[in-house]
Design brief:
This protein has one helix and nine strands; from the N terminus they run αβββββββββ. The N and C termini lie close together (10 Å). By secondary structure, it is mainly beta.
Length: 121
């Protein structure tokens, strides 16, 4: 079974308009049932992610995501998850970073615009 571009546009548009969405960083990536290990640190907080237009069954973040300076070692950030709230909430989508990064005390983590792309195919 396949989803058409029109169907993908409808689904992604619904996600985009569902309310604020937040990008969390993970050292173990959640799967379809949840789980994973989100970064835990006094300086860490999920960041508001804003998506650009839906096109061809995809949408990407349009904003630069800047995380606060790490006050403790965060470990190796291997993946991300989009959640419905800044704390708690529901994990809606997850993926891995092509280039995982080890974030030590004093380091920063950024996600450039177009760094996260959601695709329905």
């Amino acid at each position: 079974m396949n989803v058409t571009f029109a169907g993908a546009t409808l689904m992604l548009g619904a996600l985009k308009s569902s309310g604020p969405l937040y990008l969390g960083l993970y050292t173990a990536i959640p799967d379809k049932t949840g789980g994973g290990q989100e970064v835990v640190s006094p300086s860490y907080a999920r960041q508001l992610i804003e998506f650009g237009p839906v096109a061809g069954g995809s949408m990407s973040n349009g904003n630069l995501l800047q995380y606060a300076q790490a006050t403790t070692d965060w470990g190796k950030v291997t993946g991300w998850a989009i959640s419905s709230a800044q704390t708690g909430g529901t994990v809606l989508w997850s993926g891995n970073f092509i280039d995982p990064a080890t974030i030590n005390r004093g380091s920063y983590f950024f996600v450039d615009p177009n760094g996260i792309t959601l695709t329905v195919d």
